[in-house]
Amino acid sequence: MTPHIARPIEPAVLKELRTTDDAGRPMAAVTDEEGGAPLRCCLRRSETGERIALVSYAPLRRWAAETGADPGAYDEQGPVFIHAEDCPGPAGDTLPFTNAHRVLRRYSAAGRILGGRLVTDADTFQPALAEAFADPEVALVHVRAVEYGCFLYEVRRG
User: Fold this and answer.
1) Element (H, E) at 127
2) Phi, psi torsion values for 18, nearest 5 degrees
3) 71-121: pLDDT as tens digits
4) Contact assessment for residue 56 and residue 22, using Cβ atoms and an 8 Å cutoff
5) 3-30: buried (b, 16+ CB within 10 Å) or exposed (e) per residue?
6) Mapped to the 3 state alphabet, what secondary structure does 128-141 carry?
7) What pTM did the predictor assign?
8) Which among 34, 62, 116, 139 would be 20 to 30 A from 154, CA to CA?
9) pLDDT for 115-155, tens place per residue?
10) Measured between alpha carbons, how far is 1 from 7 in angstroms, rounded to an integer?
11) Cβ distance 131 to 140 under 8 Å?
């Protein structure tokens, strides 16, 4: 078991996103002809032939609504891939998508960004998360792709 757990998009939120995403657009499902899309519902890559959708998602806004924080200008939304239909969620508690450079963006309980760190390989993910949560001001960490800046998943303080 890992000390830090990747959090997929919650099933209730997925249900909302499959109707209307955080930009107010209806979901448009497609059959994935190539596979390999990073799915935020089950935290794995899509397989060829699966029905998926690219939707707009505002992770910090949704967390703030749940916690009462006010992210202010740090509120942002961006594209995420999800299954077009319900899925069982992640198969385990590993940290997914660690095979490429990632940015770990830190946020306070007030919803303000506290900094970030570039992680260049899978072996440094756990130490980088431990470093982030060693700061008592850090409430959550967003793991993001470097190449597009897309949100991959969230890790919350234990």
Assistant:
1) helix 125-134
2) -75, -15
3) 999 999 999 999 999 999 999 888 999 989 999 999 999 999 999 999 999
4) yes
5) ebbbbbbeeebbeebbeebbeeeeeeee
6) HHHHHHHCCCEEEE
7) 0.93
8) 34
9) 999 999 999 999 999 999 999 999 999 999 998 889 999 99
10) 14
11) no
